[in-house]
Amino acid sequence: MSEASKRVFPIWFTLVVTMVFIAITSVVYTMTKEKIQLNERVRLMKSVLVAAGVEMPAEPAEIEKVFTGRVKDVKNDSGGVSYYVIYEEDGSTVSSYVLVRMGAGLWGTITATVGLSRDLGVFAGMEVIDQNETPGLGGRISEQWFKEQFRGKEGPMVTVPEGSPAGEKNQFQAITGATYSTNAIKNLMNGASEYGRQIIEKQ
Amino acid sequence: MAKSKLGKVFSDDLGKNNPVFAQILGICSTLAVTNVLRNTVIMCAGLVFTTALSNYTVSLMRKYIPTRTRMMIETMIIAVYVIIVDIVLRAYLPDVSRELGPYVGLIITNCIVMGRTEAYALQNPPWLSFVDGIASGIGYSYVLIAIAVVREVLGSGAIWGIKILGSGWTNWSILAMAPGGFFMLAIFIWIVKGRGAKEEEVKAK
Fold first, then answer.
1. How many domains does chain B contain in total?
2. Which residue of A has its CA nearest to B155?
């Protein structure tokens, strides 16, 4: 190798190696792209249905069918989804409403779907879509028992200590050691209830 | 000959040359993921996979990689494997992928991967580098798992998310948070090094 080509060699080598590896990554990405998009769509559908308290089939394709059959989204002025209307199985009677709500958690934004009954007074359920709380502490807001306890409750919610009975219509169990995350969920639920009254009753 | 070399790779990476408590590498993830055992195990699996494969790939190319751009190329190889892990998880195990969140991406910045490709794969044949990657990964894993078990049991009264300590147990919340990671790692290193020091004393006598 001449002096000049010795100097240029690293550049060429790096360039070629980079292109090869980017090509490999692109192929893997393209191959899985549709599946990933489907997963993400199904996940939102699942969260909406769980919050509405609708029974869920296991297969992603089936979930999509239930969703398109029973859920209608209502757009807001800027074209985004304002809230979802869930119909009974007959497809015409309104069974509940679902809102996608965001609130400030300890480390980042908590996104959740909140289901409200037809008269907007009772929580139909909730599902956490996204959260970055401390695993083992605030992260437990994603645990089943915590999410399920809102079903059938009436806001505004207040907390009782973890492990104590939450018998009243407006009580739910807090998570020990995660007061901030618990309050974030409390505010998110109460906010959803209020917001639901504002926007859905207007229609 | 080959066998003893292999044995040496393992005993080095698991013991006196352990990436975590001897080389003090990969500390960031040791602190970040060890509060819950489940996350720790998945992180470890990801790290074993990435270290082994990037070691193998770098070693295959070691005779051609120009010295001056070698770090860029190593980083890229590591990144490619990590991205592939991430994409595959998102496509086929969406629930696991969501649970891990940013942790998978963080493997790229784990110093152990880069450290092993630099220190080992560049000088050794592919299959031996592959084994070194796995051995380093295991060396990292058992330290993390040990720390995670203590942190999850004392910090959340649970193991793998299942409650094992009754309601009478008050969680040591500090252990589930970042400082707990520092304490546990320091105690671990203290115990291991303390034992090592005693062995040296015995040898010296």
1. 1
2. A136
Please report whether residue B188 resides in a domain.
no
In tens, the pLDDT along A147-166 reads 999 998 887 889 999 888 88
Taking an 8 Å cut-off on Cβ atoms, the answer to whether B69 and A13 are in contact is yes
State the pLDDT at residue B1. 45
Residue A4 exposed, middle or buried by CB count within 10 Å (0-12, 13-18, 19+) = exposed
The greatest distance separating any two alpha carbons of chain B, rounded to the nearest whole angstrom, comes to 62
Query: Is the pTM value of this prediction over 0.90?
Result: no
Would you tell me how many other CB atoms lie within 10 Å of the CB of residue A196?
A: 23
B71 touching chain A per CB within 8 A: no
Hey, is B1 helix, strand or coil?
coil
CB A175 within 8 A of CB A137: yes
Q: Residue A123: what are its φ and ψ, rounded to 5°?
A: -80, 125
* A16-36 pLDDT, tens digit each: 999 999 999 999 999 999 999
